[in-house]
């Protein structure tokens, strides 16, 4: 420690003179006496000394000196023992693995005795046991890159010299560890068998995630084999416990990859589990990797869309092509002036209406339109030269057009940047400037309350504030109005310019989705944070509860019932709070689960239901052949060494024969001396002692 002055050191002399002067003036001898107040000479000098010290210290504090301190810390070299505790590590047998763990336990103790700071890390977050042979190898996945990156991050700036990595080299998650750069040497200890096993592996099952009720769909299984050339295997497809298909696959002598495809039919709605199983072969190394599950959501029908036009028109074909890009739409196309228009199913329930040039000036379809709109079905009106604008105005909540009938304009489109309900790329929408104009009604346009403009009209080179495409999602019926005929030309022109039909189609698809999306008005909403979870992972449910004006409510008990595929019910009770509105369920076995949550709010029963999947992915069983080549590459890149499991004991000699001294680190700090509390108490003690002595000896 040292004292640093922020001013000239000569000011210290001034502080000393101030202390001397103050003490001399206060304790100078009285006239005719040897000392002040008639005290003894010794007491007088003692009091003067106390006053001198107190005043000098106070004066020095006014100079605000700094105390410079230097702390030196000795840091021993650190070694991390990183252990891959995944399931694949035991593929070659636990006894052989335990022998290597015992050797590493000895290495750990020897390095500690030689002054190294040794710690243990695993793939899991749990602390490693004192004896490495007691470590459980139960991790369902392996991410070596994440393990090494975590060590690099946690030990940044510390004296970490080496990482001893015990693994079989099989990484099935994240990036390859060889892609990373590490500031420490990796001593890779390879375990497991590098000789390919005699095995049949179900490599992948390919199927659509969504199927429609009573429709057939394919399930494709990809199979590889080693050591079974010229033999056959039976592949079985099951739905639950019911077998729905069986095929035989033959392994060619020169080709170990084979595939089979099943055709099955979705007979139940909801999430269904299908299992593909390759029946085991005699002498097969592992039977765990012969089976995989695939989960398919079976939908009970698509969203029904009625595309109704006054007469055949290219616009109808354009809208149909856009709708059919989405497999969730079932499009019914009809025109009033043709035979199919005479049998419009008025009583049928639709999820979306697209009315082209309806209501019309001839009143052919106005009665049918009125009945369709009475159900408050989301609607897109497409206005053309045969539309009756006067009849349209009272039917839509979006816009009112006032003008002479049978008069039109030619208007191109430009995007309204203030429209934020849709996530649209404005740079891509610059294409609208190059598209041909639409035929729009002439007149005065007035947006109704709650409406927003998506596209404005551009007449010639003049950008107007007349809407071309507007939308209203605030009313009882969500509605959009396209005030232009000739939309089909936009798709053709985009294809001529770009060779694709994406931008215009995306714009219209999103507008239709916005007005057709069903609003959730439930008071209780309980839902899993994901649709799929891994076996062993906690299933988290988010809970939202609302009062009549849709304000969040807390503190209401919730009952949650989970039903598995065997109709076994698990019941849980919890109470969400403002600090924690989630509820976790742990240790659920694999399968499809239905859930129902119930609560009582204002003496009314509220409920919420749904489904989720717990998937058991056997990633660790897919490949059981150790990859020591990756470990050699990783060790060479980091300046380390590769060891076989039986040679792990040589690590101690390799580390200790290299001089690795402890690292000295110094920390310098500057502190103001006025912040030292004991200075205050010293001054207080000096002043208090002087006062007490003066009083005791009769002074004032």
UniProtKB/TrEMBL annotation:
It comes from Fibrella rubiginis. Keywords: Membrane, Transmembrane, Transmembrane helix. InterPro entries: Class_I_gatase-like, vWFA_dom_sf. PANTHER family: BLL2462 PROTEIN. This is VWA domain-containing protein. The chain crosses the membrane at residues 12-30, 42-63.
């Amino acid at each position: 420690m040292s004292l640093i002055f922020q001013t000239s050191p000569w000011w210290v002399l001034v502080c000393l003179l101030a202390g001397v002067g103050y003490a001399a003036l206060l304790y100078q001898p009285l006239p005719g006496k040897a000392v002040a107040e008639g005290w003894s000479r010794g007491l007088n000098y003692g009091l003067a000394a106390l006053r001198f010290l107190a005043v000098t210290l106070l004066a020095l504090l006014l100079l605000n000196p700094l105390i410079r301190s230097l702390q030196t810390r000795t840091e021993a070299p650190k070694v991390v023992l990183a252990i891959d505790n995944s399931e694949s590590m035991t593929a070659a047998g636990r006894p052989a693995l335990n022998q290597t763990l015992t050797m590493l336990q000895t290495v750990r103790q020897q390095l500690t005795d030689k002054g190294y700071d040794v710690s243990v890390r695993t793939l899991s977050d749990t602390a490693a046991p004192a004896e490495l042979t007691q470590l459980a190898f139960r991790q369902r996945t392996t991410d070596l890159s994440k393990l090494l990156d975590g060590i690099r991050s946690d030990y940044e700036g510390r004296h970490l010299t080496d990482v001893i990595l015990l693994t079989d080299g099989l990484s099935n998650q994240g990036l390859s560890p060889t892609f990373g750069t590490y500031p420490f040497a990796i001593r890779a200890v390879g375990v497991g068998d590098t000789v390919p096993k005699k095995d049949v592996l179900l490599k992948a099952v390919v199927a659509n995630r969504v199927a429609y009720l009573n429709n057939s769909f394919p399930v494709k299984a990809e199979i590889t084999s080693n050591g079974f050339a010229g033999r056959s295997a039976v592949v079985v497809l099951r739905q639950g416990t019911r077998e729905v298909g069986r095929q035989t696959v033959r392994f060619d002598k020169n080709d170990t990859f084979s595939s089979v495809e099943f055709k099955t039919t979705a007979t139940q709605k909801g999430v269904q589990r299908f299992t593909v199983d390759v029946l085991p072969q005699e002498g097969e190394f592992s039977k765990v990797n012969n089976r995989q599950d695939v989960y398919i959501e079976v939908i009970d029908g698509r969203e029904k869309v009625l595309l109704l036009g006054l007469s055949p028109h290219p616009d109808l074909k354009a809208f149909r092509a856009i709708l059919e890009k989405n497999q969730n739409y079932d499009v019914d196309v009809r025109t009033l002036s043709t035979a199919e228009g005479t049998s419009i199913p008025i009583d049928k329930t639709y999820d979306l209406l697209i009315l082209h040039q309806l209501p019309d000036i001839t009143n052919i379809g106005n009665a049918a339109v009125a009945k369709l709109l009475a159900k408050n079905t989301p609607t897109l009106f497409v206005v053309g030269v045969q539309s009756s604008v006067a009849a349209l105005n009272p039917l839509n909540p979006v816009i009112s057009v006032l003008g002479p009938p049978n008069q039109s304009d030619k208007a191109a489109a430009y995007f309204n940047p203030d429209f934020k309900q849709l996530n649209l790329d404005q740079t891509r929408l610059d294409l609208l400037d190059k598209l041909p104009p639409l035929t729009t009604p002439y007149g005065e346009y007035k947006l109704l309350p709650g409406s927003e403009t998506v596209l404005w009209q551009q007449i010639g080179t003049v950008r107007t504030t007349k809407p071309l495409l507007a939308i209203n999602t605030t009313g009882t019926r969500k509605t959009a109005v396209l005030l232009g005929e000739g939309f089909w030309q936009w798709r053709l022109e985009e294809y001529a310019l770009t060779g694709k039909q994406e931008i215009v189609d995306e714009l219209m698809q999103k507008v239709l989705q916005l007005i057709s999306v069903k609003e959730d008005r439930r008071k209780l909403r309980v839902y899993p944070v994901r649709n799929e979870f891994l076996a062993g992972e906690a299933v988290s449910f988010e809970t939202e509860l609302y009062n009549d004006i849709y304000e969040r409510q807390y503190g209401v008990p919730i009952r949650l019932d989970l039903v598995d595929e065997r109709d076994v019910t698990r019941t849980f009770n919890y109470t969400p709070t403002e600090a924690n509105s989630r509820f976790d369920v742990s240790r659920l076995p694999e399968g499809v689960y239905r859930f129902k949550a119930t609560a009582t709010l204002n003496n009314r029963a509220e409920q919420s239901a749904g489904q989720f999947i717990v998937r058991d992915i056997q990633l660790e069983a897919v490949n059981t052949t150790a990859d020591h080549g990756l470990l050699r590459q990783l060790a060479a890149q980091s300046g380390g060494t590769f060891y076989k499991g039986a040679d792990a004991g040589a690590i101690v000699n390799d580390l200790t024969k290299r001089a690795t001294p402890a690292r000295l680190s110094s920390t310098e700090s500057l502190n103001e001396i006025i912040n030292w509390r004991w200075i205050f108490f010293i001054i207080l003690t000096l002043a208090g002692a002087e006062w007490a002595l003066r009083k005791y000896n009769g002074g004032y």
